[in-house]
Design brief:
259 residues, two-stranded antiparallel ribbon, globular, NAD(P)-bd_dom_sf, 3-dehydrosphinganine reductase activity, SDR_fam
């Protein structure tokens, strides 16, 4: 099968424009939250932002893998002399109430002893969590699981991330009616959302639900705009995770049986 790349150049190593040690890519003073940050692209981004000098890294995940990822990241940062606080929270991103509760706990922790008028908050949200739906066609897969796997879960996290300023738009565009935004906090700080969506632009056998749900989420993101919110789409390359190793073993076994 011939693979057509989206770009003219395929890099196999870090280059200056994306090098986290490049001063122009500094993240000093920032708090970064990564969903699904215990392995693969998510953990690689945690490493990268550590090099870029963030103050805090917060990782979301459902499983006990959080502890191992936190210990590994802390050990690497200690060896390099980096003083970075690493926080972990267990959460299923499909649970909207849990997302609100966890972000409330995060904001409370970030502002303990803080006396400035502008409260501390998460500055950068990176959406890496996903359910790697594999093997079924778009017509075979359970529709609820398909929808929840990427679209609903990530939107829950984004809403909680933007909650203090989420109602900044004062107009319902189709009905031309104003809405009440009296409880909304004035937007004072810039927030960045990094949509890790490489799979939205490729067509791989057996991954139609995963690819299309990723693209659906990316398109929804494009519909929200604000001068205080930067949306970045990241095509982060390919990193083999533990889950993908198991998948490869399954593919190889299936291929051998067919032969």
């Amino acid at each position: 099968m011939v693979v057509r790349h989206l770009t003219k150049t395929v890099h196999h190593a870090v280059y200056l424009a994306i090098d986290p040690s490049n001063p122009s890519n500094t993240a000093v003073g920032k708090t970064v939250l990564i969903t699904g940050g215990v392995e693969g692209i998510g953990f690689a981004m945690a490493r990268g932002y550590s090099i870029a000098g963030v103050d805090r890294i917060i990782i979301f995940r459902r499983r006990e893998a959080l502890r191992k990822a936190q210990a590994k990241l802390n050990a690497e940062n200690a060896v390099m002399g980096r003083r970075i606080e690493t926080l972990t929270y267990r959460m299923d991103i499909k649970d909207s109430k849990a997302a609100e509760s966890v972000f409330g706990a995060i904001r409370q922790r970030l502002n303990e002893g803080w006396e400035d008028d502008e409260p501390n908050d998460v500055d950068i949200l990176i959406t890496c969590a996903a359910n790697l739906i594999q093997g079924d066609t778009i017509l075979d897969f359970d529709t609820q699981t398909y929808c929840n796997a990427y679209v609903v879960g990530n939107l829950n996290v984004i809403r909680a991330f933007l909650a203090p300023e989420i109602s900044a738009h004062s107009l319902h565009e189709l009905r031309w009616q104003s809405k009440d935004i009296s409880s909304t906090r004035p937007v004072r700080r810039q927030k960045i959302i990094v949509d890790v969506s490489s799979e939205a632009y490729v067509a791989l056998p057996g991954q139609a639900p995963y690819n299309s749900s990723t693209l659906a989420f990316t398109r929804q993101c494009n519909r929200y705009s604000s001068r205080h919110i930067k949306w970045r789409v990241s095509r982060s390359g390919y990193i083999i995770s533990i889950r993908e190793r198991y998948m490869r073993q399954g593919w190889e076994s299936s291929w051998r049986r067919r032969k």
